[in-house]
């Protein structure tokens, strides 16, 4: 099973890029973030014609998450992260695909930091960590994936000294990510590529992609039951270089059958 995550930065504005990538790579499951579309404006028909069924949670102007599945039955488990009934942001969606739980997430950016947005980021991170522990305690195979807006280490950012005050790289964010992983999750990319420079995001400005001045903020965290099935992982870096594309590149893992 090939599972991918992709922050599309506007599912309608970058639809042709998404459809081209789906056609060329044919992942079995895709988690999308930052749809930037209300529920009724999700391009369901175009996704269906590409061979995928979809479950999505849209939101006008920003946020929004979805899961696409090709030829695999999919059941929605939840579309909100537990812990704050007043949180109306569309940032989490969880599905069951043949007994595999997949949580697709778009963690808050948190800038400017410090401030209310950073406080919300850390609060959301705490809720995610609590829910992740609940999932681990169930003893079932789980994949948590998406745009975490978290740079785990200096290895994951171009010129880390320039990011020390950014919400993605502040000590509190890195500590929150480590605390989550230390529950018993495996960072799939770092398991297979422990020392390589790997980025998943390049800003639109200052020729960041051309200079490879990037960040690794899109992650796959695997429960122990999934970790032992991990065969391969990678970043479709070239997609970031396509015309009218997202500032993120798709990230993927390949799992062995049960």
Automatic annotation (TrEMBL):
<keyword id="KW-0464">Manganese</keyword>
<feature type="active site" description="Proton acceptor">
    <location>
        <position position="248"/>
    </location>
</feature>
<dbReference type="InterPro" id="IPR037493">
    <property type="entry name" value="ExoIII-like"/>
</dbReference>
<feature type="active site" description="Proton donor/acceptor">
    <location>
        <position position="147"/>
    </location>
</feature>
<comment type="similarity">
    <text>Belongs to the DNA repair enzymes AP/ExoA family.</text>
</comment>
<feature type="site" description="Interaction with DNA substrate">
    <location>
        <position position="248"/>
    </location>
</feature>
<keyword id="KW-0460">Magnesium</keyword>
<keyword id="KW-0479">Metal-binding</keyword>
<feature type="binding site">
    <location>
        <position position="248"/>
    </location>
    <ligand>
        <name>Mg(2+)</name>
    </ligand>
</feature>
<feature type="binding site">
    <location>
        <position position="247"/>
    </location>
    <ligand>
        <name>Mg(2+)</name>
    </ligand>
</feature>
<feature type="site" description="Transition state stabilizer">
    <location>
        <position position="149"/>
    </location>
</feature>
<dbReference type="InterPro" id="IPR036691">
    <property type="entry name" value="Endo/exonu/phosph_ase_sf"/>
</dbReference>
<dbReference type="InterPro" id="IPR004808">
    <property type="entry name" value="AP_endonuc_1"/>
</dbReference>
<dbReference type="GO" id="GO:0008311">
    <property type="term" value="F:double-stranded DNA 3'-5' DNA exonuclease activity"/>
</dbReference>
<feature type="domain" description="Endonuclease/exonuclease/phosphatase">
    <location>
        <begin position="4"/>
        <end position="248"/>
    </location>
</feature>
<feature type="site" description="Important for catalytic activity">
    <location>
        <position position="218"/>
    </location>
</feature>
<keyword id="KW-0378">Hydrolase</keyword>
<feature type="binding site">
    <location>
        <position position="7"/>
    </location>
    <ligand>
        <name>Mg(2+)</name>
    </ligand>
</feature>
<dbReference type="GO" id="GO:0003677">
    <property type="term" value="F:DNA binding"/>
</dbReference>
<dbReference type="GO" id="GO:0006281">
    <property type="term" value="P:DNA repair"/>
</dbReference>
<feature type="binding site">
    <location>
        <position position="147"/>
    </location>
    <ligand>
        <name>Mg(2+)</name>
    </ligand>
</feature>
<protein>
    <submittedName>
        <fullName>Exodeoxyribonuclease III</fullName>
        <ecNumber>3.1.11.2</ecNumber>
    </submittedName>
</protein>
<feature type="active site">
    <location>
        <position position="106"/>
    </location>
</feature>
<dbReference type="GO" id="GO:0004519">
    <property type="term" value="F:endonuclease activity"/>
</dbReference>
<dbReference type="InterPro" id="IPR005135">
    <property type="entry name" value="Endo/exonuclease/phosphatase"/>
</dbReference>
<dbReference type="Pfam" id="PF03372">
    <property type="entry name" value="Exo_endo_phos"/>
</dbReference>
<feature type="binding site">
    <location>
        <position position="149"/>
    </location>
    <ligand>
        <name>Mg(2+)</name>
    </ligand>
</feature>
<feature type="binding site">
    <location>
        <position position="34"/>
    </location>
    <ligand>
        <name>Mg(2+)</name>
    </ligand>
</feature>
<dbReference type="InterPro" id="IPR020848">
    <property type="entry name" value="AP_endonuclease_F1_CS"/>
</dbReference>
<dbReference type="InterPro" id="IPR020847">
    <property type="entry name" value="AP_endonuclease_F1_BS"/>
</dbReference>
<dbReference type="GO" id="GO:0046872">
    <property type="term" value="F:metal ion binding"/>
</dbReference>
